[in-house]
Amino acid sequence: MAPDVTEHDVAEEGGTRQSLGRRAARGATVTAASQGARILLQVAAVAVLARLVPPAEYGLVAMVAAVVGIGEILRDAGLSSAAMRAPGLTRQQRDNLFWVNVAIGAVLCVACFAAAPLIARLFDEPALTGICRALAFVFLVNGLATQHKAGLVREMRFRTLAVVEVAAPVVALGAAIAVGVATHDHRAVVVQQVATAAVTLAGVWVAGRWLPARPRRGAGTRGFFRFGGGLLGSQLVGYGADNLATFVIGLSLGPGPLGLYNRAYHLLMRPLTQLRQPSTTVALPVLARLADEPARFDRMLLRGQQVLALPVVLVLAVVVGASDVVVGVFLGPGWESAAPLLAAFAVAGGCQTLAYVGYWTYLARGLSGTLLAYSLVTAVLKIAGVLIGSFWGVNGIAAGFAASALLEWPLSFWWLSRVTSYPGGRLALGGLRILAQALPVGLAAWLAASLPAAGAAGSPVTGLLLAIASAVLVWALCLLVAPPLRRDAVLLVEVLRAVRSRAR
Fold first, then answer.
1. Which spans does this entry mark as compositional bias, Basic and acidic residues (predicted)?
2. Phi then psi dihedrals of residue 205, to 5 deg
3. Using H for helix, E for strand and C for coil, what is the string for 344-378?
């Protein structure tokens, strides 16, 4: 997506255009590399800790994490995105935003600490009291880091941010493994989350070189709160709908099934989030400057969809087809029941990725209120899918989640096209071309993973390698017989090469 911007350049005045384009391209390269590292770390963390901590212990942390996640959205209050997209940000405005995030984090820390016994009583799990109180401090730590991290993004210091965001999970994983070896219980996962927040805070403060001054009146921050409020509402609605399943499973089925659901979700959906969110970090500052140039804005969205969604959806197709061997490789013995959950999440993740450029549009054009309205509608779909699916247990809940994502994808195109200039039809066609490749790729992976060498008597690693090889072969055949698909693949290669060359 970055080359389209850098070829035409993107700034208000001629002398700054080429510089902005190069910085965006460098940002795309560095962000892609750092997210690749973070995704590998996330998968490694799930794979290693799943062999040290049993599903029921993971389920205990997942019960608390669902509550903590809501608090984290409140703690940010949409102000990090508001600061990143603002055309101008004074020192006083930045100071005020910092103290607002810190104040919210402190209040949430105290509230979570005090409410810990109530949360434990709600789920009838006494161990949740200690987990809640340990994780409560994450609110305060992240509140202290929010605006420093946003400042690094505004300054397009993507390399520095990448170092921090890779170092934090490395240190946290090391600490979690040490605790996991000693205890084999939920404390390893708690330590991992607290350590990640603490190392991130230290890194962004050292890199940011900014000491906030006291807050002042008349700094002109009302617009930030207006935008952040709309974004906050949509994020709360989306998070609540996404995590309803956690409450349903935790309250009705217990920590064991919830642990299976949680690990399958984290093995797949967390890396996808780590991939998609930083793409917003790179795309948002550039798209915000193109908001008044519809033709170039649309071209960037179309290219962005192909660059982001094509490789992601193809990989997810392999996961759907070979979910049994994927679970065998990455989670190990005792987690076999997570395979159908993983396949359902792969379907949901593919649909969400195809529609993700719509989220860029909402943010770049300041449509946080419209995003909130759309989020309310999609929340109803998710809630309906989870509640209907709950009649069939944990597998039914995952299937309901996937079905709602299938419906949200076309809805997202139609919704945005009603309120702003948006190439919904062309994006839908681009998505269908991606699916035309993903379906045979997934079928090939399933057939390969079903071979005797990959079955119960075989090796999961062998099965996964066979599935990947078969998928690559079938994809190559698709490109050979279908010129439109071949053009999309060539575009992906050209974009990656252009980003690499512009980033030098």
1. 1-15
2. -70, -45
3. HHHHHHHHHHHCHHHHHHHHHCCCHHHHHHHHHHH
Please choose, from the candidates 363, 105, 357, 353, the residue with its C-alpha nearest in 3D space to the C-alpha of residue 231: 363
The answer to whether 410 and 428 have CB atoms below 8 angstroms apart is: yes
CA angle 235, 339, 384 (to 5 degrees): 40
Q: How much helix, strand and coil, in percent to the nearest 5, is found in the chain? A: 85, 0, 15
In 3D space, the residue among 380, 436, 419, 374 whose CA is nearest the CA of residue 234 turns out to be: 374
Q: Examine residue 190 and state whether it is found in any structural domain, yes or no.
A: yes
Provide the residue range defining the domain that includes 93.
21-267
Rounded Cα distance, 330 and 347, in Å: 19
3-state secondary structure of 22: helix
Q: How many residues does the chain have?
A: 504
Asked, for residue 239, whether it belongs to a domain, the answer is yes
| 44 located within any domain | yes
Look at residue 276 and tell me if it is in a domain.
no
Sign of CA dihedral 112, 381, 440, 338: positive
- What is the domain count for the chain? 1
- pLDDT tens digit string along 141-190? 988 888 888 878 777 777 888 888 889 999 999 999 999 999 999 999 99
Res 213: pLDDT:
80
Q: What element of type H or E holds 405?
A: helix 393-419
Residue 132, number of CB atoms within 10 A of its CB? 23
Q: Do residues 213 and 225 make contact, with C-beta atoms less than 8 angstroms apart?
A: no
Nearest to 245 by CA among 352, 407, 383: 383
Q: How many CA atoms lie within 13 A of 140 on its CB side?
A: 12
Which phi and psi (to 5°) does residue 331 adopt?
Answer: -110, -30
Indicate whether this model's pTM tops 0.90: no
Rounded to whole angstroms, the Cα distance separating 75 from 372 reads 18
Q: pLDDT digits over 368-388, tens only?
A: 778 888 888 888 888 899 889
